């Protein structure tokens, strides 16, 4: 047996060494990063992420298990929060976060800090911006809630706390708060508004990993925070996401929602943790019905893979000194260069106390009579510089929202301005000084011809 173990260990070591060599050679050949020349996003992987994924497969650790639990612990440690619930996407994170607030697992109330709030019911109102990504607001409609769409401010691209407060009615039960492109909201007044009105707060921090407000990381202020680990985000596990919370009750519900709605809380590959697996009586089931197959929530199967978590563990190691540091440096270089063109563009801005780790650099055309967003993004595309529009623009203008039930709070003037005039360029760690200077030169050339 010892000889076999030594043989397998040697083969595994050799395979991983070859994987590392392959990655390095593929980089030199240039097959990893395709055109366009300056992408708006790119993952920050090296041979360690590839080797971690292959190692997981060799050890046959594929589905959600111990590696995923380790990732959850490390992610919680990075954010300085209590619990992380790892899921298969940021969209799934938003889905179970909102769905958990309708759960009756703990009766008609759920703990929020030191108080208990009424659970959310069908028809309750949720305040959220209209300039958004679809799965921030889609989860509200899926849960039979009424989105109350609020305008944004140009520059920060977040909601003004005064607009949030004025949108509240006696039906308001939740604020769904995206930190747009990694830019922190004004959390002090928003937290005060939520607490005063006994309203739940979910931070959509999918674009905001590493961003801080007054020294505290985004996603950890509200009842829950959601994150995405898709290819384009600060760390990438290919696909993936997470919900974080300090609340043990919500943690229990979130685990259940992710795992088919199970009442059982056993860890992966464990059974009978409670010591009375066949001694429960819940709902209208007969006494003794298997607790592992008892479902107290209308849940889903949204588990990620251990393989993805293995990649995520390597990504977390890169967060402080590579990913966050480089994003901030690249944003600053682009921002300083683009200041020369403020006559034509509204540049991004942050509030006092905010320390963003920007997802990208948002830019808004000041006067569409001079040039349009389509004019400049087509010019940039011709010069191999990738851009993206401002998410879904005004979400209620999307074809999927025809016939949807929602309420508009006042006018969505800036939302429409962003829909027509806002785009963003990348500031990811894959950009080097040559690429940044190239981007700034192309902007300069464009504006010099106007």
In short:
By secondary structure, the chain is an alpha/beta fold. The protein has helices spanning 2-29, 47-58, 66-79, 90-100, 134-142, 161-166, 187-196, 248-258, 306-338, 373-382, 413-421, 433-448, and strands at 83-87, 109-112, 115-118, 125-129, 146-150, 172-178, 200-204, 212-213, 216-217, 224-228, 241-245, 345-346, 354-355, 360-365, 388-389, 407-408, 422-426.
Question: Please, could you describe this protein's structure?
Answer:
- There is one protein chain.
- The protein has 450 residues and is α/β, with parallel strands linked by helices.
- It has two domains: 66-307, 3-Layer(aba) Sandwich (Aspartate Aminotransferase, domain 2); 317-448, Aspartate Aminotransferase, domain 1, CATH 3.90.1150.
- 38% of the residues lie in helices and 15% in strands.
- It is built from twelve helices and 17 strands.
- It starts with a helix and ends with a helix.
CATH architecture of the largest domain: 3-Layer(aba) Sandwich
Give the helix level as a range of percent. Answer: 25-40%
For the record, the count of structural domains works out to: 2
Low-confidence stretches: none
Q: Beta fraction of the residues?
A: 15-25%
């Amino acid at each position: 047996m010892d000889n076999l173990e030594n043989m397998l260990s040697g083969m595994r070591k050799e395979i991983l060494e070859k994987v590392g060599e392959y990655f390095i050679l593929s980089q030199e050949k240039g097959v990893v990063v395709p055109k366009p020349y300056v992408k708006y996003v790119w993952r920050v992987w090296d041979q360690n992420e590839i080797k971690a994924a292959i190692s997981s497969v060799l050890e046959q650790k594929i589905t959600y298990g111990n590696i995923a639990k380790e990732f959850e612990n490390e992610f919680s440690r990075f954010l300085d929060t209590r619990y992380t619930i790892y899921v298969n996407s940021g969209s799934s994170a938003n889905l179970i976060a909102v769905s958990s607030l309708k759960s009756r697992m703990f009766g008609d109330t759920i703990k929020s800090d030191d108080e208990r709030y009424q659970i959310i019911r069908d028809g309750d109102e949720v305040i959220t911006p209209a300039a958004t990504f679809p799965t921030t607001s889609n989860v509200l409609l899926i849960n039979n809630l009424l989105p109350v769409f609020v305008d944004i401010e140009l520059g920060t691209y977040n909601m003004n706390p005064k607009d949030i407060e004025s949108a509240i009615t006696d039906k308001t039960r939740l604020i769904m708060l995206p930190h747009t492109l990694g830019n922190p909201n004004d959390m002090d007044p928003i937290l005060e508004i939520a607490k005063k009105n006994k309203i739940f707060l979910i931070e959509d921090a999918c674009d905001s990993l590493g961003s801080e407000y007054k020294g505290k990381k985004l996603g950890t202020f509200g009842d829950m925070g959601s994150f995405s680990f898709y290819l384009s985000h600060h760390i990438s596990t290919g696909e993936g996401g997470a919900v974080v919370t300090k609340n043990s009750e919500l943690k229990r519900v979130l685990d259940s929602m992710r795992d088919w709605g199970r009442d059982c809380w056993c860890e992966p590959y464990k059974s009978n943790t409670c010591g009375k697996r066949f001694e429960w009586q819940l709902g209208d089931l007969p006494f003794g019905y298997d607790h592992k197959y008892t479902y107290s929530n209308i849940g889903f199967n949204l588990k990620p893979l251990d393989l993805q978590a293995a990649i995520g563990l390597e990504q977390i190691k890169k967060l402080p000194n590579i990913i966050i540091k480089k994003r901030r440096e690249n944003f600053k270089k682009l921002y300083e260069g683009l200041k020369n063109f403020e006559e034509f563009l509204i540049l991004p801005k942050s509030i006092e106390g905010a320390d963003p780790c920007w997802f990208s650099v948002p830019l808004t055309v000041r006067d569409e009579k001079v040039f349009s967003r389509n004019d400049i993004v087509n010019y940039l595309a011709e010069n191999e510089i990738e851009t993206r529009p401002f998410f879904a623009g005004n979400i209620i203008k999307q074809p999927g929202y025809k016939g949807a039930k929602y309420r508009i709070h006042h006018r969505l003037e800036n939302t429409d301005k962003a829909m027509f005039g806002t785009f963003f360029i990348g500031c990811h760690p894959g950009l080097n000084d040559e690429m940044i200077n190239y981007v700034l030169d192309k902007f300069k050339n464009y504006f010099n011809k106007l």
